[in-house]
Amino acid sequence: MTKQEGTATLPSYLTVTNADFEHLTGTEKNKKFFELANTTKNQICPIRDIVARISDKWSVLAIYGLGGYGKLRFNELKHKIGDISQRMLTVTLRNLEADGLITRTIYPQVPPRVEYELTELGHSLMQQLQLFAEWATKNGPEIIYYREKANKVIKDRIA
Amino acid sequence: MTKQEGTATLPSYLTVTNADFEHLTGTEKNKKFFELANTTKNQICPIRDIVARISDKWSVLAIYGLGGYGKLRFNELKHKIGDISQRMLTVTLRNLEADGLITRTIYPQVPPRVEYELTELGHSLMQQLQLFAEWATKNGPEIIYYREKANKVIKDRIA
DNA sequence: CTGCATCCAACTTGATACTG
DNA sequence: CAGTATCAAGTTGGATGCAG
Q1: Residue A49: which of B55, B135, B140 has the nearest Cβ?
Q2: For chain A, the helix, strand and coil percentages under 3-state DSSP, each to the nearest 5
C-alpha cells in the first residue's frame, strides 16, 4: 500500500476523516476533538491508539534515533539509546514495524545483519513529535517546577 | 508564579532551553532532539516527562474535556468522559493540578462544589495536543490498517 | 457531591540464560 | 549479531467500602 491522503483503500469501518473538523474553530473544534478522542468505532480510536503507541517507555527514542541517524543496525541503535535492554528494543521495533512506521531489512549473512529505517509514515510521525518536543523543551521546566513544588507540599503534609 | 517565556525564575538545574536547537535544521535538528530526549539532568528529561504525563489512560481526555467545555465540576467531567471511574478521575486531576495544567477551586458548601479549569499552561498544552490529534486523525487509520494486517500475519504463523 | 483507602487482577518491564 | 524464552518485580487501573 502506497501512502494515500486520508482513508483511501482503508477498511470501511475506519471512517474518521479530517473533513469533520477542519472547518471548525475555537471552542467548537475543541469539543469535536474531545468527542473524537472519547469515541471508539469497533474498539478503535485513532487518537488514543496513536498516543498509546508513542506512550511506552522507548518508542519515541527509537523513532528519534532512526530519524536522526537514518538506517541503523540493531546494535547501533541499542548503543545510541544506551540503557535499553535487548528485549525491550526488540519489542519496541516489532511494534513500530507492525504499525508501518519502520522497515526491517534482513541480510542473510552469518553473523546476521538487520537494518531498521523509518518509513514515510514514520518520518511524518517524527515531524509531529518534533513539534511536541519543542513545546516540551520550552514548557517542560515550568511544569516540572510546579510538580516539584507540589511534591514538597505533600511531604510537608506527611511531616 | 506567572507564565514566563522559557526558563526564567526556574531552578538553575533546569537549563534546557530552545536556544540549543532553534537554529538547527533537518538531520542535525533530529539528532539534537534525540540527544535531548535521551538525556536526563538530575533524573529529569522534559520531553520524556511531558510524554509520560499525557501517556496515562485518561489525561488527554480530561484536558480535552476541560478545553472543550471550560470550567467543569467533578461529576460533570466524569459524565462527559463516561467510562472513567471515580478513583481514576481523582488521580488524573490531581496529577494535572500538580503539574500546573489545571486549577482546582473548592466552594465551601454542603454538599461540596469543586470546579476544574485549564490554566494558561494547560491551554497551551492542549493546543499542542490538538496538532497531534489532527495528525492522528488523518494518519491513524493507515497505521491501524497496517497493524491489523500484521496481526493477521501473526495469526497465520500460529495456524 | 466529592473524594480517600484498600485490595487485587492485569499488564509492563528488566534480568538472565540460551540459540541460529 | 540479533534475537527468543522465562521469570521476578514493579506499576496501573478498576471495584468496593467509607467519610466529610
Answers
A1: B140
A2: 60, 10, 30
